[in-house]
Amino acid sequence: MTTIFLIIYNIILLLLLLPALFFILVFSGKYRKEIFYKISERFSLWDYSSKTKSKKTVWVHCSSLGEVRAVEPVLDCLKQEYNIALTTITKTGREYAEKIQKADFTALLPVDLYPFMIKAFKIIKPDMLVLVETELWASMLYAAGRQKVKIITVNGRMSAKSFKVYNALKFFWKRFIGFINIVLARSRDDADRFMSLTGAKTEIYVSGNIKYDRDFAVKSSRADFGLADSDKVFTAGSIREGEDEIIARAYLKIKETMPDIYFFAAPRHLSKIKNVKKTLDDKKIKYSLFSEMLKGKKPDNRFILVDVFGKLQSIYSVSDICFVGGSLVNKGGQNPIEPAAFAKPVLFGKNMDNFKAESEILLKYGGGITVFDAVDIAAKIEKLLLNKNFLVKTGESALHAVKSQKGAVDITVNAIKGRLN
């Protein structure tokens, strides 16, 4: 029956892919570069020649940049002992994976059609497939099962929203998720949801979140961005559509009492820069582009629009207070760990379903603060900046929350090695 479901899945996927590709090619120019980037890899046309035969091979698959960055410390612990093949779905994830050179082989994940997936497994010949967070692909899981490859999900994440979808299609997904041998879940809620989907065959443990174990050390200083140590700096990171309006109003409100504050705003997707610019223009907010500051130019304006990729971590590190986006709109929130790891008070909205455990831990330790609207953001910023002791204490509490959760990498590495050796 599982084979029949796989055939149906492949037919439906193929029927959906063809018109989607046609639409992107004809009408959507902004996605063409993503589609055609190393497109041969999407069909398992790989040149995999770096395998050391004396070592076992681990295939690590991540969705995008965030997951690649999260799994870096795990790769550091595995790369000397095993051959590492690393795949991603996105162009940015693939580029970053190649840049850090922590794997012997890096490629884009093939389209999840069984002929391409089984070809990929026969090329790599992995002893284990490591899936990061919620990477569930029917053909991939089936091919791994056919090749008798051990499958482990690490940093397993199953949000309430995702669970509703998978659970509604449980009659289908239980046949494929059941191929997973072990799930190391980030939290008890994630573990319970995976358990409901996988059944009794899969071992499920709570390991914690490996993102807490990342080394967040950066060499940025305020001087790098033309800022002084005495400047007040607030950063709204990874803001989503609809939040630009709220952040703009928060800036106008805080500027009434703190006109000298530097206010950074970084859209989650650079493709939305034009929309944010329009919002700022409509509200008559004068802004400078962060790309100009990288050229050594001191900003002409106090509102800084971040129009470059990969610098948010550095900006967090030089800020006084940070806000993580996707949380004032119904997008599930963004990762609050990065600013917290720099000992910064972290503001976020009530919609943190994708990072529920992380936000709850920050709130518990007093390093996180829930905000509800523009007026509330401005009020919380003012309260923190006017009380230096409160600002420092809240930041230290955020860092303490991060340190309290470390250890997931050791659990993850031991689980992988224990099943391979």
Structure description:
The protein is globular. The protein has 421 residues and is of the alpha/beta class. It folds into two domains: 172 residues, 3-Deoxy-D-manno-octulosonic-acid transferase, N-terminal domain (Rossmann fold); 183 residues, Glycogen Phosphorylase B (Rossmann fold, 3-Layer(aba) Sandwich). Helix 3 crosses helix 18, helix 5 packs across helix 6 and helix 7 runs parallel beside helix 9. The mean pLDDT is 91. The strands form two sheets. A seven-stranded parallel sheet has the order 3-2-1-4-5-6-7, sandwiched between helices. The chain has a seven-stranded parallel sheet with strand order 10-11-9-8-12-13-14. Strand 4, helix 6 and strand 5 form a beta-alpha-beta unit. The chain is built from 18 helices and 14 strands.
